[in-house]
Amino acid sequence: MSLAEIVQETEDESRRSRPGIWRQLWHDRMGRAGIITAIVMLLVIGVGPVIFPFNAQAFGISAASILQGPSRAHWFGTTELGQDVFREFLIGGRISLYVGGSATIIAIVLGAGLGLISGYYGSWRDTVLMRFTDFFLVLPTLPLIIVLAALFGQSILVTSLVIGLTSWPQTARIIRSQVLSLRERPLVLRIRSMGARDVRIMGKHILPNVAPLIFANLVLVLSGSILAQAALAFLGLGDPVQVSWGTMLHNAFDSGAMSAGAWWYVLTPGAGIVALVLAFSLIGHALDRVLNPLRRGRP
After folding, report:
1. How far is it, in rounded angstroms, from Cα 287 to Cα 17?
2. Residue 154 burial by CB count (10 A; 0-12/13-18/19+): exposed, middle or buried?
């Protein structure tokens, strides 16, 4: 069999397996619930601010408009500045998702890249990269994120970098273990014996086969990144200029909204964080169950 035929056989095998994964994900109750919830949340975050724009410079004109409960004029009540909580919630979701998404891209590119190189080449490269990964794995993540955010600033860019650079080790470990198995498969060994370059083998034959696993970890890292961003903003380490769900919670507790009985101010951003994180977590765990034969059929 020629190299071209082997390549075509590998690509056909990968192409046949991909539709089955997404079909199984949709038929999985956990995965379907996560997909539906994520779509609803993304539509609300994406379209909401266009229909209900938020003006950060608009304040309540009277004391009666401060921490006002839900009403026809303000569906989710008002803030300590008399601003509409619902409109602030919509724009805050975009910032939370943007920071979480940016951090996830950084973590996945770094983790998948190191895992791919470490698993494929092995030898001393694997030893060095995995010891480097182990060092980050044993570090307490949240305290490290808090320290780094306090040292380097509170902008959206810095927050994304800090979360991303502390969220990659688990992905690197998972991808590396899968690549170790893939590189010993007959098709890969035959392609390598016929003179194919390492970069081509990794890019054309190994990476497509670990892509569903990368996506599963991407979804889980995304949920963790959104939660980490909310935690930083709640602790006052988020960007003070941009409104996010974590910033809303910080402002609510800082202004004494709970002691004043303004439950809507805390419940609205809190429910948004829970719904978005839960949606991506359900999708990620369902994908893991679909891709892992040992977990199929288990709740």
Report:
1. 14
2. middle
Q: By mean pLDDT, which of 60-64, 159-163, 294-298 is the weakest?
A: 294-298
Alpha-carbon distance of 149 to 160, in angstroms, equals 10
- Can you read off the two tokens belonging to residue 283? 């999708």
Domains and CATH numbers, the chain: 3-53+73-295 (1.10.3720.10)
Rounded to whole angstroms, the Cα distance separating 43 from 4 reads: 44
Alpha-carbon distance values, 190 to 10, 17, 176 (Å): 11, 21, 21
What single letter denotes the amino acid at residue 288?
D
Q: Which of 70-84, 167-181, 230-244, 252-266 has the highest mean pLDDT?
A: 167-181
SS3 call for 70: coil
Angle between helices 169-182 and 85-121 (to 10 degrees): 40
- Residues 257-288 have pLDDT tens digits of 877 788 888 899 999 999 999 999 998 888 87
Q: What share of the chain is helix, strand, coil (3-state, %, to 5)?
A: 75, 0, 25
Check the CA dihedral 268-270-35-33 and report its sign. negative
Whether the Cβ atoms of residue 130 and residue 118 lie closer than 8 Å to each other: yes
45's CB contacts (< 8 A; 6+ apart) are 90, 93, 94, 97
CA dist., res. 109 & res. 278, Å (int): 23
Tokens in use for 278? 């839960």
